[in-house]
Amino acid sequence: MEKQKKMKSGVMVRPRKPKEWVIFILMILTVLFTVSPFINLVNVPTLILGVPSLMLVALGAIVITIIVVVLAYRWEVH
What we know:
- With about 80 residues, the chain is mainly alpha-helical.
- It has a domain at about 20-40 and about 50-75.
- Helix content is about 55%, strand content about 5%.
- It contains three helices and two strands; from the N terminus they run H-H-E-E-H.
- It has helices at about 20-30, 35-40, 55-75; strands at about 45-50, 50.
- The longest helix has 22 residues, at about 55-75.
- The radius of gyration is 18 Å and the shape is elongated.
- The model has no long low-confidence stretch (mean pLDDT about 85).
């Protein structure tokens, strides 16, 4: 009976395959899309299609995050 190796909960594994790098970069871009310097650029009293620009960016961030996660599951990137 061979003992299975278990990964520690605090271990960070770097991407190795091209698909893993693509998902990693998309996740980083998604996080950068929601940080303070970018938010300050769109935090102006402007309506776009009847929606405040900041709310539109927040909704866009949610949609982009969902797309990246679905793509990661479809490509079987863990």
